[in-house]
Automatic annotation (TrEMBL):
InterPro entries: Cyt_P450, Cyt_P450_E_grp-I, Cyt_P450_sf, Cytochrome_P450_fung
Binding-site positions, heme: 132
Native organism: Dendrothele bispora (strain CBS 962.96)
Subcellular location: Membrane
Listed name of the protein: Cytochrome P450
Amino acid sequence: MWFILAMVLYPEVQKRAQGELDGVVGQSRLPSFTDAKHLPYIQAILKEVLRWRPAVPFGLPHTINEDDYYNGYCIPKGSLCIANSWSINHDPSIYSSDADEFRPERHLDTNSNLKDESSDGHFSYGFGQRICVGRHVANNTLYISMATILWAMFLEPQKDVKGNPIKPEVDGEEWNGIVMWVLTQYLPLTSERVLV
């Protein structure tokens, strides 16, 4: 859902990604996993979506195995510890003063290549020994889904009865912890792509 919201809110990102897909994949076939290495902007969008709006904002709880000290504070053995992924992913000392903005370019170098292909570019999967073991499956699933959606259609805000776009609010997409849907129109880029 956050990917869809980002594409609706940032149509220039969507258009750039679709241009990259058209240049690499063309119009006669769907994106594949072998295309991924030639689609750095799509990879940057994936990293940025997971950084911008992590699926698990407070990470998973862990238990402290032995007494630990941090900045003079004792964290006793058996304490529950939860990493605040949201805060880390929005830390201005890591992601600059615009950390709350959706900006895939932060994951690209000056030549539009991924800065560090081996890095997730975010802390949404955790870190260290207890990093999510399924992150590669998740990334591959998200990549192929995002690439296929962007290859096949243009996402734009739903229109009201007068034909004016209803721009979704980033912070207005939750209500009492329940994620709400984004009012989106899915428009095929071409009639040929619908048939592929």
